[in-house]
Amino acid sequence: MKRVIIEKHGGQEALSFQDSDIPEPGPGEVRVKLKTMALNHLDLWVRRGVQGHRFPLPIVPGCDGAGIIDAVGEGVPKELLNMETLFSPGFSCGQCQHCMNNDDPLCAKYGILGETCDGTCSEFVIVRQQQCLPKPSSVSWEEAAAFPLSSVTSASMLEKANLKTGETLLVIAGTSGVGSMAVQMGKMRGSHVIATGSTEEKRDKAIDLGADHTIDPSQEQWWKTVKQITNGNGADVIFENVGEATWEQSLLALAKGGRLTTCGATTGSTVSIELKRLFFKNQQIIGSTMGSRKLLKDLLEPFAQRKLVPLIDGVYPFKDLVAAHERMESRQSIGKIVIRF
Ligand code: ZN
């Protein structure tokens, strides 16, 4: 089978194709013959390396994927063979207090495909049985791969921020993988949604997804537009995943009692906070990463009903993985980049 491995961190040249044996599932595991996989920013971090963090190299990158179970390990019911599946990118011990409370990203043994073990840039992948969820028949293979990581991350952030009906949600980068999910989830929760988009095409797309207003973040003091739209109040919940480039204005756009939740820092992660404003305004800043398997399972219903539809920028054949990385790094993409095997 073909797979891509990263032996040494670097640019696009760090991705190398390799022939290898088809892996065998161990106890409690299944093997999935992948139809599709989708890229995430995590793939870029794993390829480039992150200062102060050690990835287990060599590694097969890729955390999202969908396909057909074609082999099962010891202790896994044979009925799962031939099941069409999408899977949770995260896995955990399943036994500790955090796992019992459906807080599995806090588990000491939490891991992510393509980050802590070999992932989905491979024709076959081994996953734990518990990670597998049935692929709804109403969604395409491309959508099935594009869904898990971004949807569970967004849903978890909005839950932690306790976004309520009638509140205003500001989604920074409303057409990113997670942003496009947040816009749709905000509307599902009955909130008023404002999205930022750096090009007219991105802003039009955010409106198509259901955003009530859009903002061009290249505008100086765009936070004032958020204030105007909200009659001077600001946004009750701000969905951040950009970091340095937008942080300062995001905080200025936050309402009294507002909650800013962040899952990413695609433009840099060192930011400052005006503490007086934070405490006088009773605001909260909430960090979040990934989401529980239970939450992903609950999202399958709105996904099957097409209330949540992943925004897809483009589909590339597996042999063009490098071009797909290049597209993601260009920051021009609108939504998810999918690979078809
Ligand atoms: Zn655990």
Shape: globular
CATH architecture of the largest domain: Alpha-Beta Complex
Uncertain spans: none
CATH topology of the largest domain: Quinone Oxidoreductase, Chain A, domain 1
How many domains? The number is 2
CATH class of the largest domain, anyone? Alpha Beta
Estimated radius of gyration = 20 Å
Unique ligands: zinc ion
Q: Between the first and last Cα atoms, what is the distance in angstroms?
A: 11 Å
Give the SSE order as H and E letters: EEEHEEEHEEEHHEHEHEHEHEHEHEHE
Instruction: Give the overall average pLDDT.
Output: 96
Helix fraction by DSSP (H/I, runs of at least 4): 25-40%
Strands, total number: 17
Which percent range describes the beta-strand content? 25-35%
The main β sheet shows up as: 7 strands, mixed
Estimated structural class: alpha/beta
Individual helix count: 11
State the CATH superfamily name of the largest domain.
Answer: Medium-chain alcohol dehydrogenases, catalytic domain
Structure description:
α4 (148-160) packs across α5 and α4 crosses α10. Helix content is 28%, strand content 26%. The chain starts with a strand and ends with a strand. It folds into two domains: 2-147 and 310-340, Alpha-Beta Complex (Quinone Oxidoreductase, Chain A, domain 1), CATH 3.90.180.10; 151-287, NAD(P)-binding Rossmann-like Domain (Rossmann fold, 3-Layer(aba) Sandwich). The strands form four sheets. Strands 3, 4, 5, 8, 9, 16 and 17 form a seven-stranded mixed beta sheet that branches. Strands 12-11-10-13-14-15 form a six-stranded parallel beta sheet, with helices on both faces. A two-stranded antiparallel sheet has the order 1-2. With 341 residues, the protein is an alpha/beta fold. Zinc ion is lined by residues 92-93, 95-96, 98-99, 107, 109.
